[in-house]
Amino acid sequence: MQLGELVFVGLGLYDERDLSLRAVDEIKTADKVFAELYTSLMPGLKTEELERLIGKKVTVISRKILEEEEGQQILQETKQDKVVFLVPGDPMIATTHVDLCIRAKKMGINTRIIHGASIISAIIGLTGLQNYKFGRSVTVPFPENGVTADTSYNVIIENKKRGLHTLCFLDIKTDEKRYMAIKDCLNILLAIEKRKTKNIITLNALAVGVARAGAPNILVKAGCVRELLNHDFGPPPHTIVFPGKLHFMEAEALVTLTGASREILEMT
């Protein structure tokens, strides 16, 4: 028996209009359309508007179905049908989507990817920081039971040692409607700095805050941590970059594109 097909489609950053024409064509020929909306927040996306655009019913699946149940609901449908799986951003940025793709391949299911705009490429364009100067990215999690994971802090240290920038994804808990803000993230990292005393995340450290990448009301601001703590970035989603060693063109870009003080030119 010939198996069906699983097509991963990136939704982009803001709303349903971020879908590419190729993506829309793929969706319109699908037998079933699933979507997950918990790995990232798309502030302008409305499911009913998405369904109107593509002319298909969209089944939104939970974290439990995708992770705890290993996406079996989706995989079962692909045994005979063409299934499109819609995900925020670019499909394979989240490891849970890579895992689903691997499972499908091992079952003999054909898989394809239709790429969408990613926060990673957006950050590079918005800040002017050079793509080959970024090190390992990291997620800053909400503290659990008063305990803060130190991994994010350690990643920033390692990248800075190599002169590289660190892209920090801020934790979201969609089911609880909790989205970490830039101020929250900075306070978490400052608390770790107080314990670690490595002089990495200080009030004078340079950082770049990005709010609502891809949205009409996007906000990008570079400055010292002290400045960003007092800056109103508005609604989520938020992202932070901690720059490493700046090339002179990167420094000029931060001044021109993000409103940073010209004092950062002295950091090059």
Architecture overview:
- This protein is α/β, with parallel strands linked by helices.
- The protein has ten helices and twelve strands.
- A five-stranded parallel sheet has the order 3-2-4-1-5, sandwiched between helices. It has a five-stranded mixed sheet with strand order 6-7-12-10-11.
- The longest helix is centred in the C-terminal third of the chain and has 15 residues, at 182-196.
How many helical elements? Answer: 10
The secondary structure category is alpha/beta
Distance between the termini: 62 Å
Indicate the overall shape. elongated
Rg estimate, integer Å: 20 Å
Under CATH at level 1, the class of the largest domain stands as Alpha Beta
Describe the strand arrangement of the main beta sheet, using strand numbers: 3-2-4-1-5
What percentage of the residues does DSSP assign to strands (E)?
15-25%
Keywords:
five-stranded mixed β-sheet, 268 residues, 20% strand, Methyltransferase, Cobalt-precorrin-4 Transmethylase, Domain 2, 2 domains, Cobalt-precorrin-4 Transmethylase, domain 1, alpha/beta
Q: What secondary-structure arrangement, pairings included, does this model have?
A:
Blueprint: E1 5-10, H1 21-28, E2 32-36, H2 47-54, E3 59-61, H3 63-68, H4 72-77, E4 82-87, H5 95-106, E5 110-114, H6 119-127, E6 138-140, H7 151-161, E7 166-170, E8 172-173, E9 178-179, H8 182-196, E10 206-211, E11 219-224, H9 225-229, E12 238-242, H10 248-258
Parallel strand pairs: 1-4, 1-5, 2-3, 2-4, 6-7
Antiparallel strand pairs: 7-12, 8-9, 10-11, 10-12
